[in-house]
Amino acid sequence: MNGAATVWRAMAGNPLRFVFSSWPWRSLAYVVTGPVAAAVWLVLVEVLLAGGVLLTPLVIGLGLLAGVPLSAVGFAAVERRRLRLMDRRPAPSPHRDPPRPGLRPWMSCRLREAATWREFGYALLAVALAAVDVVVPFVLVVGSTVAGSSPWLIAKGDQIQFGPEATVDQQRETWPLMLGGLLGLVLTLYALAALAGARAALARTLLVRPVEEELVEVRASRARMADAFEAERRRIERDLHDGAQQRLTGLIMTLGLARLDRSTELIDKAREEARAALEELRDLVRGIHPSILTDRGLAAAVEALAERSPVPVEVDVALPERPPEGIESAAYFVVAEALANVAKHSRARHARIVIRPGLSIEVHDDGRGGARVADGTGLQGLADRVAVHDGTVRLSSPPGGPTILRVEIPCES
Predict the structure, then answer these.
(1) Fold (CATH) for 293-408
(2) Cβ distance 193 to 185 under 8 Å?
(3) What is the pLDDT of residues 11-45, one digit of tens each?
(4) Is the dihedral of CA 8, 9, 15, 20 positive or negative?
(5) Which of 360, 358, 382, 361 is nearest to 371 (CA)?
(6) Is the sign of the CA dihedral 170, 176, 177, 178 positive or negative?
(7) Which of 108, 357, 391, 411 has the most CB atoms within 10 Å of its CB?
(8) Is the dihedral of CA 79, 82, 85, 90 positive or negative?
């Protein structure tokens, strides 16, 4: 599934594509559901406050009062889920695990966290902004819809009032108004998207754990690079000698026996050996440079990798033209190695690949996190391959996830 990761990227793209995409509807849903969530949380807070004040002499009353800021934890969790409407990037919780199981350790841990009080402040701000989220969409949508449908309203005998004196009641007066209304509908879509994007940015700033990145060393030594290429050469020689060469030798012997015995069974066996040898040669060549990359480019090759991945992968590749051959090959193997790591180590349920001109590659997964260069995940080899093109590799993989691998390879495409 292709598409922009955030509403801001969608708005910066093709206007026609944006207007007819799902983003305006997602923006409207995000803005409209915000006041609903805020209202539900406000009712819960009022109940906790009332119960806490009435039961103050009892221990349970203090617990209810403590639940007022703690209720923002649940509200923030809902907001992080709603954030997916506007921002497809991972939104991990900023909270740490309590030291012990149970309600009291959980409450004590949460009340001591700065993240809880940030969430409480965000909840109060969401309540204050709820009126804006209701009034702005209502005025924009209703105003532009009425103006756009003015010819039909006047034809039915209605009047359109603009202020105390301006009235439209003639059919000829409605056509400029209708054109302005249609233009206003388009501008309304962008205004709603901008409002929703601003609210989503506020939510990500206050409610989402900051991403810490590890810069992977890519200035590989010449000795390590030389060793890597020598090991690859030996692997190719070994695969040829132990695989395809042995099968071709067996094929020659089988054909010789078939010629002497005129045996159809031996001819069929020779055909199977030839097919097996061809498959081994194809697999070997695919490991060096896949044919789909040569024939159809990076986007198609990455799509093929995603289709073969045991983890569902969302692909978003936007390249106006093909990168140089060496960089394109390096980018392909970066994605291949990253997806192999996701499948082997992450326990992820979903992954996402984003490739942009520049050349910028991001691989996200929602797995358990905790990936490190020294953990045998192949990241050092990946960094060595990128180093040839003066690229950089950044890894963000906090315990609990998500993992984000960012690779930048200087490229003019």
Answers:
(1) Heat Shock Protein 90 (3.30.565)
(2) no
(3) 887 888 888 888 889 999 999 999 999 999 999 99
(4) negative
(5) 382
(6) positive
(7) 391
(8) positive
> What pLDDT, on the 0 to 100 scale, is given for residue 36?
93
**pLDDT tens readout for residues 71-96:** 999 999 999 999 988 887 778 888 88
Q: What is the DSSP letter of 397?
A: -
Determine the angle formed by the axes of helices 222-239 and 264-288, rounding to 10 degrees: 170
Q: Which one-letter DSSP state was computed for residue 321?
A: S
Q: How far apart are CA 276 and CA 69, in angstroms?
A: 67
Per residue in 139-160, pLDDT (tens digit) is 887 777 766 666 655 656 555 5
How would you label 68-85 residue by residue, b for 16+ Cβ within 10 Å and e otherwise? bbbbbbebbeebbebbeb
> The whole model's pTM is what?
0.55
Residue 223 has pLDDT above 60, yes or no: no
- Coil, strand, or helix at residue 408? strand
Quote the pLDDT of residue 1.
38
Amino acid at 369: G
Q: Are 409 and 359 in contact (CB under 8 A)?
A: yes
Write out the two tokens for 311. 């983890």
Give residues with Cβ within 8 angstroms of 52, minimum separation 6: 61, 62, 63, 64, 65, 67, 68
Burial class from Cβ neighbours inside 10 Å (0-12, 13-18, 19+) for residue 215 reads exposed
- Report how far Cα 362 is from the mean position of its chain's Cα atoms: 9
Is the pLDDT at 226 greater than 60? The verdict is no
DSSP-derived secondary structure letter, 6? B
Q: How confident is the model at residue 279 (pLDDT cuts 50, 70, 90)?
A: low
* Domain boundary assignment for the chain: 1-210, 222-289, 293-408
pLDDT single digits (tens) 344-380: 888 888 999 999 988 899 999 988 887 776 555 567 7
pLDDT of residue 221: 47
The torsion angle over the Cα atoms of residues 337, 338, 339 and 344, rounded to 10 degrees, is 80
Rounded to an integer, what distance in angstroms lies between the CA atom of residue 303 and that of residue 165?
A: 61
- Alpha-carbon span 98 to 104, nearest angstrom: 10
Q: Which H, E and C letters describe 100-156, residue by residue?
A: CCCHHHHHHHHHHCHHHHHHHHHHHHHHHHHHHHHHHHHHHHHHHHHHHCHHHHHHC
Q: What is the pLDDT of residue 165?
A: 53
